[in-house]
């Protein structure tokens, strides 16, 4: 952290983040230690939950490291971090609202006396649906998704292995996630209800 708790000037911030872009883990840790507490406090004011706020900020820092070489600062590092935290909080709140709407709709359709499946079966069924959804992905899309999720490869590594650009990998991953969300949208509310009541 800067001496006496003072924040970095814009030029120093840019130099620090340039080190991050060059895979300097110590610089990354320095950015994390400096901004993590204040970003968590800011996120907490928006989402009203400490654990959720911390998860949002942690996810942001994971994304920053994964995409460090693609990030271009148009202003200060502090402005970028707070702006990204703000946007991620808004996305979380929007997602929560959609999920609550699903729960309300499913509750309204839930028939009294209808048998409830046990948790083990629901978990297996969800796994089956995910597998079916992955199998229905376009070939390149499916291959990239499996390399990322099952083999743990980074986007750059996938790009090198597949002989394509990193941006193509990003586009294909976004497409895969979008398709899978669509495939599972009718199933997730039932799973959420089961976990909620049992």
Q: What is the CATH architecture descriptor of the largest domain? A: Orthogonal Bundle
CATH class of the largest domain: Mainly Alpha
Secondary structure tally: strands: 0
Helical residue percent band: over 70%
N-to-C SSE string, H for helix and E for strand = HHHHHHHHH
* Basic shape: globular
Beta-strand percentage? under 5%
Question: Number of helical segments?
Answer: 9
**CATH homologous group name of the largest domain:** RNA polymerase sigma factor, region 2, helix turn helix motif
Give start-end ranges of low-pLDDT stretches: 1-7, 109-121, 190-198
Could you explain how this protein is built, in words?
The protein contains nine helices and no strands. The radius of gyration is 21 Å and the shape is globular. It has helices spanning 10-21, 25-47, 50-66, 77-109, 119-135, 139-149, 155-162, 166-184, 188-197. It has two domains: 1-109, Orthogonal Bundle (Rna Polymerase Sigma Factor, Chain: A); 116-198, Winged helix-like DNA-binding domain superfamily/Winged helix DNA-binding domain (Arc Repressor Mutant, subunit A, Orthogonal Bundle). Helix 7 packs across helix 8. With 198 residues, the protein is mainly alpha-helical.
Brief descriptors of the model:
single chain, 198 residues, mainly alpha, Rna Polymerase Sigma Factor, Chain: A, Arc Repressor Mutant, subunit A, 9 helices, globular, disordered N terminus
Q: What's a quick, concise take on this entry?
A:
The protein is an all-alpha fold.
